[in-house]
Write a structure and sequence with these properties.
heterodimer; A: about 280 residues; alpha/beta; 5-stranded parallel β-sheet; two-stranded antiparallel ribbon; 9 strands; B: about 400 residues; Rossmann fold; 16 helices
């Protein structure tokens, strides 16, 4: 059996590894939740890379229907063909368009199927996929055919917790909550992305980053992906660790803060803090 | 042994079913986690817990059920005690060491330290864990600066000081504790109710196909109105006085509600509803909205949510002239009932923790008036309140 233990570009904590491997071994879907920007979607990409399996992604929107993942019957083009007198119109199979799940079931080798942000869809969406994900087969009414998986795909489902998922659905999945990485894990994550980064800069940027996360009242706390962007910017602008180290209250807002603070209220909050700080000292 | 673990989980109200238990057994059979308690913990968590809210409860049960089972030969687990001991030796005088002995020795001290750590709140934040503040930590008593003892991630070797499940890092996700804007939004979404209203501007594919078929194959387009959230909400928020302590959570609730509902009208009141409420606290003296006008303006299809600690003198509810602010001709109870008669779908959210409710007479009175539709302002309470409103 293939095992997933992180890749050279992705740091997987031991609990995540256990969850992924359990899902692979028992051929059940893996439901991943966690703060935005902690690498939920990337996980599926990395699993596919690590196990060298093709990746199929199905991004869910608020208008997505479960049926779209199975297949769609293109009634409008059949109608048009019918009015134009096209020969194709006599075979309904010509108008059945396979969805992502169908593709995954028919693939020559078991792919990794990512169902991204399942909570965006309608509340009934997960329920409509219960049987399909459980038995890995479905029935096409129009052609009276049953499509069943040649190899059960590795299914990774991500959720941002906007809606609660039904119990029956949850019971069929393994679940993993990606916790916000602690400093040590974060250091490993950065090492993976910026192996050349100088130790000093790493230390200073991490300190500032975790300090920002501790500020009470922030609307949106910066997350891993924002930290990585910020470090990239720091490198591009060639900012020295000394600049980060200055505890000059006038410069309480870190340089290039646009990568970390995504909300003007948060920037205001920082400016206000800087002002208070100055007043205290002056 | 596993089954008693399963039973205890259910007792602790972690919603696990037999199906999940069997999944875990199957995974064990496949040797996904063997001979390692930590891996087993991760596996059990992934297969039995399906919502981060329950991870804390799960950790507690796990810690209780599998206490004493350790991975064989893990020297690190012994480290923190030795480390602390060494630290203490450096900082404590002979006299103080004797004091420790008198208190039952190191083992006792470590045990109570451990206990304290499980009791301590919010120690997981940002990954650093500080033990106690002066005065509560046993170390404080011996003149040692307690902030100096850090069991945390910075010194990597001390990480295993606390077992993973004993760290209980998911504590703040339990749904009986306080909430943030995001969580509130989630709970409020229960109230969403979609309906098609207004101008028809969306293509109704099914309808088009049907009517085209009826039309002997000639295309006949059908349109439907877009779906909207049609829930209408009146929010009454108690401000001032004893509510000062709860300003933050009310603010969060308010901002979450504002972005969630298209039809939301808010009013402020103080302690209890009387003949008028106001919309802007800065102009509350000049711009008051009479409750009678409010009742006439918004019909019974609106739902009412009252937020307040309901902590006041009983006179403020049952006597005319009881209001602390001005003379009221009719008692607060009359006005409250009038409001509830108009809006049968109403709930009261109380930021005061539920366990203190019985201690305040006025809370009991309000609960009676509102027919026990008072819910604590926690995620769980909000959830129940919203369910109640959708009924």
């Amino acid at each position: 059996m293939q095992r997933f233990d992180g890749t050279d570009t992705y740091v997987a904590t031991p609990d995540l590894q256990v969850a992924v491997n359990a899902a692979i071994a028992l051929e059940r879907p893996l439901l991943v939740k966690g703060e935005p920007g902690t690498g939920k979607t990337i996980l599926a990409h990395e699993i596919s890379r690590c196990l060298q399996k093709p990746l199929l992604t199905w991004h869910i929107k608020s208008t997505s229907k479960a049926q779209q993942g199975l297949y769609e019957y293109d009634a409008v083009s059949r109608l048009r063909d019918g009015q134009l007198g096209d020969e194709r119109v006599y075979d309904i199979a010509n108008y059945i368009v396979p969805g992502k799940l169908w593709e995954a079931f028919e693939a020559a080798e078991a792919p990794v199927l990512l169902i991204d942000e399942i909570d965006k869809a309608d509340i009934e969406f997960p329920n409509d996929l219960l049987l399909e994900l459980d038995r890995m087969e479905f029935y096409v009414y129009e052609t009276r055919r049953t499509i069943s998986a040649r190899h059960r795909p590795i299914v990774v489902i991500t959720s941002n917790n906007e809606k609660e998922l039904p119990d029956a659905f949850l019971r069929r999945c393994f679940f993993h909550y990606i916790r916000f990485p602690d400093r040590e894990t974060m250091q490993r994550i950065i090492d993976v992305h910026f192996p050349e980064l100088k130790h000093e800069l790493l230390h200073e940027s991490l300190t500032i980053f975790y300090d920002i996360r501790e500020v009470p009242g922030l609307k949106k706390k910066p997350s891993t992906s924002e930290l990585l962007d910020w470090i990239k910017l720091l490198l591009v602008e060639d900012i020295s660790p000394d600049v980060l180290r200055t505890r000059d209250p006038a410069k309480l807002i870190p340089p290039l803060h646009g990568a970390l603070l995504k909300n003007e209220q948060d920037v205001h909050l920082f400016e206000r803090l800087a002002f208070l700080h100055r007043r205290e000292r002056g | 042994m596993f089954f008693s673990f399963f039973a205890e989980l259910r007792e602790a109200k972690v919603p696990v079913s037999l199906r999940e238990y069997l999944t875990l057994m199957e995974a064990m059979q496949r040797r996904i986690a063997a001979f390692d308690i930590e891996e087993f913990y991760f596996l059990a968590r992934a297969s039995l817990v399906k919502d981060e809210r329950y991870i804390d409860r799960f950790d507690r049960v796990f810690g209780h059920c599998f206490k004493g089972i350790e991975t064989l030969a893990d020297p690190k687990a012994e480290l923190p005690e030795a480390w602390l001991k060494k630290l203490a030796e450096r900082f404590l005088t002979e006299e103080e060491k004797q004091l420790i002995e008198a208190l039952g020795g190191w083992e006792k001290l470590m045990e109570s330290l451990r206990q304290r750590m499980t009791e301590q709140k919010a120690r997981h934040q940002g990954g650093s864990k500080w033990i106690g503040t002066a005065g509560t930590s046993p170390f404080g008593a011996y003149g040692y600066n307690p902030e100096g003892i850090r069991i945390g991630q910075e010194e990597g070797r001390n990480r295993s000081a606390v077992k993973v499940w004993d760290r209980r890092e998911f504590r703040n996700l339990d749904d009986t504790v306080e909430l943030g804007t995001r969580n509130i939004k989630l709970a409020l979404r229960r109230l969403r109710q979609f309906a098609r209203e207004g101008a028809a501007e969306e293509l109704d594919l099914d309808g088009t196909i049907k009517s085209t078929a009826h039309n002997a194959g000639w295309l006949d387009l059908k349109l439907v109105p877009e779906r909207h959230n049609t829930v209408k909400l009146l929010l009454f928020v108690d401000v001032g006085g004893s509510m000062e302590d709860h300003v933050r959570v009310c603010e969060e609730l308010f901002s979450a509600a504002r972005s969630e509902f298209k039809h939301l009208v808010h009013f402020y009141f103080h302690n209890c509803i009387y003949e008028s409420v106001w919309r802007d606290s800065r102009r509350r003296q000049t711009e008051q909205t009479p409750v009678m006008e409010l009742i006439r303006t918004y019909d019974a299809s609106w739902r009412a949510v009252l937020v307040g600690d309901a902590s006041m003198s009983p006179y403020e509810i049952e006597k005319e002239g009881g209001s602390v602010e001005r003379w009221n001709d009719e008692p607060g109870e009359t006005w409250l009932r009038r409001l509830l008669d108009t809006y049968p779908k109403a709930v009261w959210l109380n930021p005061v923790p539920q366990k203190y409710w019985t201690g305040t007479a006025s809370i009991g009175m309000i609960r009676q008036i509102i027919e026990d539709r008072m819910f604590p302002l926690t995620l769980d309470g909000l959830d129940r309140a919203m369910r109640r409103l959708t009924r």
